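@here heads up, posting the sequence + SMILES for the zinc ion run so it's all in one place. Ping me if the SMILES looks off, I pulled it from an old spreadsheet.
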Amino acid sequence: MHAFFPLPARRAALVLALLAGQAGALTLPLTDERVAAQAAAVYADRLAALDAAGQLDPVPAFTARVRRVAAGLIAQAARDYPDTAAWRWEVHGTSDPDQDADCMAGGKILVSQAYVARLALSDAELAMVLAHEIAHAALRHNLRELERALALEPAWAGRPFEALVDAVDHDGDLMARLAPLNVAQEREADHAGLLLAAHAGWPPERLAQYYRKLMRASDRPYFDSDDHPAPASRWRAARALATTLAAPQGQR
Ligand SMILES: [Zn+2]
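bot reply: prediction finished. Complex structure tokens:
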């Protein structure tokens, strides 16, 4: 997933309060810096809320595991996507059962222990989750989504930036029009993420197993959702890419 505000619904009030404090600046210009600054502010707010609830990094061994796996991917991202080398990366774990895993713009990562436990993820599968999320951020998917929204509805140019950021996640009409882009971005993050993790040294076939688990855990494995391709098609694509990467030199 890569919602701009990857928050459970019960935290919506917090976000709106945050928006109220910042609203004013118009949507244009849409820049990478603005998107990253907004993400950093929201991330800090998420961490503060989790901390207040006793849900921020409550299990040191889990946070250490996520950071260890993330470190290799972050180092590889600096090679594959050189402009990420200057990011102020942050990696945290949470016991909040309503979170899963995400990397906000600019390298702000949060992973739920419940999500990792529910799918019984191996380190390689956790690397695949993290690499997918890092790919969303490295490929500037939030910025691309805001640009598309502006192209679809030019009136947003005269409205507050924060309201557009909120609308791409919560305005049903706009979300429906952005759905094809969201699905394409998921496929792109699957592909680029698997390549990133493979470059970092993880065996491609073990990375791809994450998508098999995702498919098996899904109650609708053969259907696309509003913003994600069908789990079965993601598993098929990951397996095909892993096979290509695992082929000996000369057979690719
Ligand atoms: Zn995603």
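MO: The chain has one domain: 28-244.
MO: One more: The mean pLDDT is 90.
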